[in-house]
UniProtKB/TrEMBL annotation:
Residues with the 2-(S-cysteinyl)pyruvic acid O-phosphothioketal modification: 116
Subcellular location: Cytoplasm
Key words of the record: ANK repeat, Cell cycle, Cell division, Cell shape, Cell wall biogenesis/degradation, Cytoplasm, Peptidoglycan synthesis, Pyruvate, Transferase
Catalytic activity line of the entry: phosphoenolpyruvate + UDP-N-acetyl-alpha-D-glucosamine = UDP-N-acetyl-3-O-(1-carboxyvinyl)-alpha-D-glucosamine + phosphate
Entry protein name: UDP-N-acetylglucosamine 1-carboxyvinyltransferase
Entry's family note: Belongs to the EPSP synthase family. MurA subfamily.
Highest taxon above the source species: Bacteria
Length: 419
């Protein structure tokens, strides 16, 4: 199993190119099931989760060609509607094939998902929303069996909580339903807007982009097109955090400052100088120790849960103390015991944590537990005294493209070791 060996203490300096967003690429790949002519995605990141979703749609019979960051798919060869446990269990986003399969082929059997171990993460909202469009759904022996007589019918969907995946699944179904679907309490994450933009380019009719009420007027068919995946705001924030925790200066390019305003505000509050251009962001920590910053995770445009672990790591060496509330997922503090092994001072009470900054962290063997938590350990290691060995980095490979090459280009002392 691969591990990272990181020697801390280098102030990161330089430029890093941000990849396409994992969380946008996955629903966009699921959308490739919908059109009746070939479709091309560009800026697709080379990640394990992307490979899993491509395997999943190939298993449905879709013809997929992948060259570099370009994926071309032709769904006219689709010949089954079965998403097996072996593929779905590794990645929760696999459930996103349910909506488009049902909308285009009238039936689907999709295994219940797995993915990161951050809370129970049910899919009840996805299923309830599809039922509101006329789907008949049964859950049996770990599989969702869904079918509909004829086409799905437009309806009223009201989510009980803001769900990113739920909003995507229902959009992917409603675009081919008969009549109008209104989605209330919809998620407003940039990855949702990216999906909407792709669907519109394919011929879908959707109003309300960037708001929590989406109105979809179903069409009979969709056509192929070419579309570039939006930049990864979480990868962007993660590399800026690497500059902050090491007291360095990093410019992220091929990104979009409008996607992560709430995170950039926190970096400024830390005392960093943040400069923005049309498609770049630079963070200069000016060689200083950051001030610890408090925040609460909430749906977009508020502070994203996917940046919680990384900013907690920066707080661990911050000046003063900060409180962090995690309101999106239960059990998303699994990085805390690992950061504590490196000398961080963090007290957890339920979904709240108090971080009291220490001057230095010290290297220790640690274990990655989920995707973003893993990056928080990389950050801590970059700032720590000595050599840190991070185990189970397969979690990081699910979501960070070329992580060691990117960090090395900024001067980090990181290498992948196999054992
Ligand atoms: C997506 C992101 C993930 C991010 C999360 C929140 C992808 C591939 N993943 O995950 O990185 O952390 O949004 O921004 O885009 N819930 C239910 N029932 C449901 C659906 C959700 O109870 O049917 C709950 C979840 O357990 C969680 C909350 O709603 O507590 C939000 O989940 P959701 O927004 O659906 O997250 P994902 O789409 O899985």
């Amino acid at each position: 199993m691969d591990k990272f060996l990181i020697t801390g203490g280098v102030k990161l300096q330089g430029e890093v190119r941000i990849s396409g967003a994992k969380n946008a690429a996955l629903p966009l790949l699921a959308a490739m099931i919908l059109p009746d002519s070939p479709i091309t995605l560009t800026n697709v990141p080379d990640l394990k989760d992307v490979g899993t979703l491509i395997k999943l749609i190939e298993g449905l019979g879709v013809t997929v060609e992948r060259q570099g960051d370009r994926v071309v798919a032709d769904a006219s060869t689709l010949n089954n509607q079965f998403a097996p446990y072996e593929l779905v269990k590794t990645m929760r986003a696999s459930i996103l094939v349910l909506g488009p399969l049902l909308a285009r082929y009238g039936q689907a059997q999709v295994s219940l998902p797995g993915g990161c171990a951050i809370g129970s993460r049910p899919v009840d909202q996805h299923l309830k929303a599809l039922e509101a469009l006329g789907a008949e759904i049964e859950v049996e022996a770990g599989y969702v069996h869904a079918k509909v007589d004829g086409r799905l019918k437009g309806g009223e969907v009201v989510f009980d909580m803001v769900t990113v995946g739920g909003t995507e699944n229902i959009l992917l179904a409603a675009v081919l339903a008969e009549g109008v679907t209104t989605i209330r309490n919809a998620a407003r994450e940039p990855e949702i807007s990216d999906l909407i933009n792709l669907l519109i380019k394919m011929g879908a009719k959707i109003e309300g982009i960037d708001t929590d009420t989406l109105v979809v007027t179903g069409v009979e068919s969709l056509h192929g097109c070419e579309y570039a995946v939006v930049a990864d705001r979480i990868e962007t924030g993660s590399y800026l955090a690497a500059a902050a925790i090491t007291g360095g200066r990093v410019k992220t390019t091929h990104t979009d400052p409008n996607l992560l305003e709430s995170v950039l505000e926190k970096f400024e509050e830390m005392g960093a100088e943040v400069t923005r251009g049309d498609d770049w962001i630079e963070l200069d920590m000016l060689g200083k120790r950051p001030k610890a910053v408090s925040f609460r995770t909430l749906p977009h445009p508020e502070f994203p849960t996917d940046m919680q672990a990384q900013i907690m790591a920066v707080n661990a060496i911050g000046r003063g103390f900060a409180t962090i509330s995690e309101t999106i997922f239960e059990n998303r503090f699994m990085h805390v015991p690992e950061l504590s092994r490196m000398g961080a001072n963090i007290q957890v009470d339920g979904n709240d944590a108090v971080v009291t900054g220490v001057e230095t962290l010290s290297a220790a063997p640690v274990m990655a537990t989920d995707l973003r938590a893993s990056f928080s350990l990389v950050l801590a290691a970059l700032a720590a005294d000595g050599e840190t060995l991070i185990d189970r980095i397969y979690h990081i490979d699910r979501g960070y493209e070329n992580i060691e090459a990117k960090l090395q280009s900024l001067g980090a002392n990181i290498k992948r070791v196999s054992s």
